[in-house]
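S1.2 Input.
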Amino acid sequence: QAARHARELEQAADQARRDRDAAGENFERQRRDLEQALEQREGAALEAANRARGLEFELERIARGRSELEAEFRARTEDISRNLAAAVAERDEARRAGRAAEERAYGATSAIREAEERARSEGEARVALGRR
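S1.3 Output.
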């Protein structure tokens, strides 16, 4: 009976060693899997960080381009405004010059009529003198 008990104890000890070894192998497998998953996540995190850095540079480039376009737009708008103001001033000056020319032409026309009227009056006066 002692021998049987010893055998049972030895079998129990062998089973305990197998269980321990299986648990150790299972632990090692899980540790390797976790390390591999961690490495994959670290790699993914590095890729995401690099992608984010690249996107930041792209965003900065776009912002610079936008600022340049806004500055160019402002400059062109100012040029257009200056050109418009100059054109309006030129138009107004041309209108004033046109009115002044019309007034001079009217004055000249009036002077011609008055001269023609005087000439007619003088002609009529001469004719009247010649009849007398």
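S1.4 Remarks. The chain has a mean pLDDT of 94.
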